[in-house]
Every structure is written in C-alpha cells, then in structure tokens.
Design brief:
Blueprint (H helix, E strand, L loop, with lengths): L1 H6 L5 H27 L7 H9 L9 H18 L12 H17 L2 H20 L3 H7 L1 H74 L5 H29 L16 H10 L3 E7 L7 H21 L4 E8 L2 E8 L18 H11 L3 E6 L5 E8 L18
Helix pairs in contact: 2-3, 2-5, 3-4, 3-5, 4-5, 4-6, 5-8, 6-7, 6-8, 8-9, 8-12, 11-12
Pfam families: HATPase_c, HisKA_3
Enzyme class: transferase
Organism: Nocardia uniformis
Length: 407
C-alpha cells in the first residue's frame, strides 16, 4: 500500500504518462504490423519497418512532439508516393498512421512554438488533401474536408494551450499573493512588537533617566560620589534607551535600515506648520529664536511632538483654531493650544484614548531630556506643553540617527 500511495504522488505523474505513451505505441504497432499487408503491397521483411514508421513516432509525443510529427508526416508522404496500396484499399497509408499523425499534430499545437504550429498546420493540411484526393471519387470529395479537420484540431490544441498557460499564470499569481500575504503578516507582527516595546520598555526607561537626573535635586545631602553614581545611571539608561530605539527602527522598517531613512529636524518645523495651514487648518504660529542650532535629538522630538499635536487637533477638534508657540531661550519651549471643536469629532478625545499618541510624545520629550504635559483646558480645548533642553541629553550615533516612531 505504501508503494502504491508513493506512485500516486504528483512527482510520479510523468512516469505514469510515459507508461501510457509506451502502451499506446505498443497497441499501434501491434495493429499496424499485422494489418499492413491488407492495405499495402509490402514484402514481409519490410512490414515491421513500415509499421514502425506508422506507430513509433508516437513515443516522441511528450519529449519532442515537433520531431515526432515531422517523422510521421514525412513517412506518410513517402508511403503514399512510393508504396502501392492493395486494389481493395483506398487509403494511401494506414489508419494507425493517421491516428498517430493527428495525435502528434495536436501535441505540436499544445506545446511547440507558434511558428512550428503554423508549419505543421499547413503541411498536414496539404498532405491530407493531396494524398486523399488521388483516390476514388468518394475520397476525393472527402479530401476537401481533411484540411478543415486539421484546422479544427489545431484550433482546439491552441485553446488547450492558452487555457493551460492561463491556469499556470493564475497559479503563479496565487503563490505570489500567498507570499505577499505572509510577508505582510510578518511586517504587521514586527510593527506590533515595536509598538509594545515602545509603550512598555521605552517609556519606563525614560522614567529611569528622569529619576536619575532629578535625584540630586530631590534628595538632600548627597555626596559627590552619589551624584556621580546617579549621573552614571542616567548616562547608561540614556545609552540603553538610544539602542532600544534603534532596535525598534529595525523592527518597524520594511527592508530599509534606520540609518538610511532621513529624519526631520527642527528647521523643518515651519514647513510642517505651513503644510497644516495649506490643508485648511486655522493655525497661527509664533517662533521666537533660531531653530537651526537646536541639537538633532531635540529637533527630532520637537518636530514629532508638533506633528502629533496637529494631528490630534485635526482628528479630535475639527474646525478649531490652533495656536503654536515655539520659544528658544535657555530651553526650548513648545506650546500647542487648540480651541473647542466647531463640530463633533469622529473619535474620542486624545486624553481619553489609551493609545501611544500622548505617551509617545512624553517618551520623546523625556528621551531628549525634557518633559511634556498634555491636558484639556477649561474652555473645552486642549493644550500640549513641552520643555526641551538646548544641549544634547544623550550621545547620538551619527551612523544610526533616532528612528521614526508612529506615535
């Protein structure tokens, strides 16, 4: 039973087809040889060779149908011209030869190049029309139908060919779709892992940095060694946070390394504000102080906080006026205030949503060495306020800038 199941596998289909071809060829030869003397005047010694030309080309129907057709058609023409048929026989060659030639012509239409199909169609039609027309009146009249029959056979073979090719193309497309679906699932899982790490690890690491930085101010009587220890803890935590953010960039990227993805800077914030105004937002902005000298990490945090604040205002307070103020003095101060919505929002307010928007802004501010508050206003609006340092809060890697997060 195990051997039988193994033979039924798809990889053995070619073996079964070859066995079928050999069987059919054997049947053709077994019929053509003993009956050859009935249709043609052939010496007994030559009968197996003439019958072989009628049946054996069928063996090539899978490996090389064009060659098999050429041998069968050529031998049919030679037999019709060189070997006389019996007085009581009207066929120029045997019925087995006709069946083999038709089967090979069909295989040529299915598998051979179109140029060879055209040659086989014209040659076979001429062969059948001319050889059959040399017979008596009944076959002469029927000889006009042979080219039509050959044409129908060729057309049917081409239809099978195109149907098979379309099925193969559909199968290939389905496989590509499955691969793309699997790839998308992997990317979605990577994005989910990145979000989880962002919400859990990065936030708490930022809290460690804040606690280590503020410990000397919250605890009285610390020695110089204790202050140095807290400073070392903060430095190590900031470095670990930076590495984690770089790892998240790898998880979130789609075949692109984080260092190859350009990161926005503080100098691009005015362009961000102009884009929001062009999009129809009632936005007024005030920028005091230069933005070009802001450190890279602080500038990236500033850009992302402004971007997320404007997005929240657009989603949760549609039609409301928005005021943005950026002041660069001893520290960088950002304030984004939006008025109450002029018409109902399509989703909950940002302070009621337990997602990663405000949490992400707070994490960015803390990672840059600052802090951020976000709360509703008494008039129904919302205010985001951030204080960011103008000196680098941690050492950035020039080869791997801070990756982008979807906050």
């Amino acid at each position: 039973m195990a051997t039988w199941r193994a033979l039924r596998r798809p990889k053995h289909a070619r073996l079964w087809f070859d066995a079928f071809i050999v069987l059919v060829t054997t049947v053709f030869l077994a019929v053509a040889w003993p009956t050859l003397h009935i249709t043609h005047q052939v010496p007994v010694a030559a009968q197996p060779f003439i019958a072989g030309f009628a049946a054996l080309p069928f063996l090539l129907i899978r490996v090389n149908p064009a060659l098999g057709w050429a041998v069968s058609a050529g031998s049919a023409l030679l037999i019709a011209l060189a070997i006389p048929h019996q007085p009581n026989s009207d066929l120029p060659f045997q019925v087995v030869h006709i069946l083999c030639l038709f089967a090979l012509t069909f295989a040529v239409a299915v598998r051979a190049p179109i140029q060879i199909v055209l040659v086989a169609w014209i040659s076979t039609s001429l062969l059948m029309a001319t050889t059959m027309a040399q017979l008596d009146d009944s076959f002469a009249q029927a000889g006009l139908g042979w080219p039509i029959a050959i044409t129908g056979l060729i057309v049917f073979g081409l239809l099978v060919r195109w149907l098979t090719l379309s099925q193969l193309a559909l199968l290939e497309q389905s496989e590509e779709t499955e691969l793309e679906r699997a790839r998308r699932a992997i990317l979605e899982e990577k994005a989910r892992i990145a979000r989880d790490l962002h919400d859990v690890v990065a936030h708490h690491m930022s809290m460690v940095v804040v606690q280590a930085q503020t410990a000397p101010y919250r605890i009285d009587g610390l020695s110089a060694d204790a202050r140095a220890e807290f400073e070392a803890i903060g430095t190590g935590a900031r470095a670990a946070l930076n590495e984690i953010r770089g790892l998240l960039g790898v998880l979130r990227s789609d075949g692109q390394l984080p260092e190859h993805a350009p990161q926005p800077t503080a100098a691009e914030v005015p362009g961000l504000l102009d884009g929001a105004q062009r999009a129809g937002m009632q936005l007024t902005s005030v920028i005091e102080g230069p933005l070009d000298a802001i450190p890279e990490s602080t500038g990236l945090a500033l850009y992302r906080i402004v971007q997320e604040s404007l997005a929240n205002a657009s989603r949760h307070a549609p039609g409301a006026a928005v005021q943005v103020r950026i002041t660069s003095a001893e520290n960088l101060t950002l304030t984004v205030v939006n008025d109450p919505a002029t018409h109902p929002a399509t989703s909950r307010s940002p302070h009621d949503t337990p997602g990663s928007g405000i949490t992400g802004m707070q994490s960015r501010a803390q990672a840059a060495g600052g802090h951020l508050t976000a709360a509703p206003r008494p008039d129904g609006g919302f205010e985001v306020r951030a204080e960011l340092p103008l000196t680098p809060a941690f050492v950035t890697h020039t080869a791997a800038p801070l990756p982008e997060f979807n906050i």
